[in-house]
Amino acid sequence: ATMPPLLAAMSTAGRHGVLVKNAVVLERLADTSVVALDKTGTVTAGRPVLEEVRLLGEAPLEHEQVLRLAGAAEYPSEHPLATAIVTASRQAKVTVTGASDFVSLPGRGVTATVDGHRVEVGTADRLAISGPAAQRARTVAHTMTDAGHTAVVVARDGVPVAVLGVRDVARPEAADALHRCTTLTRTPPLLLTGDNAAAAARVAASVGITDVRAGLLPEDKVAAVNELSQRGERVALVGDGVNDAPAMATAHTGIAMGQAGTDVALETADAVVVRDELHAIPTVIALARRARRLVI
Ligand code: ADP
Ligand code: MG
């Protein structure tokens, strides 16, 4: 017996590494007019590496102390930046367990209590830090950012003690896969990221994306999707993080990167990329279109 075209397409998509939740999703994917992607973990492989630690303050902490505070505070986080920091802490033989009162602030960073101190780790522009040390932290962060790093500030009891520079490069197949998206939808893909503009621009340039929206909180990603929808676009939103889930739910279709994907993203998504590579995106859109032509 021959399978109905939509079912057959869902099965083919599965073989190409995309699990499509149901046939309705496949029809919606066929309508995609533009692909919007998250940066960290989506356009990048999401395996960032901590490359720089700049100590701040009048009486700087030891390098190991900073890795202790940051590693322990990040240990419960699922974010790729957290993984980079925890890995570096472990490599320095620093204990990363024992934090309490962990709070994750999507698009901003984390806070936790470590060794009796209130520790914040996150983006320089959105942390609750002030005073001359905060100004210095932001200056250092901007220098790192200009050098292509994602800069993350570590604060202890409200005082910045270090800036960490993390590097995350685009997936090797990203430029080709995104070019295929442009050919399919006739609209170039765009980047929606919570990271800073310089880091975003660098990754975007390396994969041929020109439309970049940076510094977005989860609700700003939703607003960006809504704005596109109001212009008549049918957005396929590809992401991996907790911060992407609301925008995924708002978009015409939400697609989660399975490997790096957080539970919230996987549950919210209409389709999940289980093979860890971006070619799955244009492939599933093309399959969806072909299936629809067979149905009509
Ligand atoms: P993206 O949209 O590119 O996936 P996010 O919205 O997840 O990025 O994060 C945006 C920014 O918030 C990061 O570049 C970082 O500065 C900060 N951030 C988010 N989560 C964390 C974390 N767990 N630790 C440190 N910084 C974080
Ligand atoms: Mg992400």
Automatic annotation (TrEMBL):
It comes from the Bacteria. It is found in: Cell membrane. Coiled coil: none annotated. Belongs to the cation transport ATPase (P-type) (TC 3.A.3) family. Type IB subfamily. This is Heavy metal translocating P-type ATPase. It comes from Salinactinospora qingdaonensis. The chain holds residues 323 to 618 of 675 of the full protein.
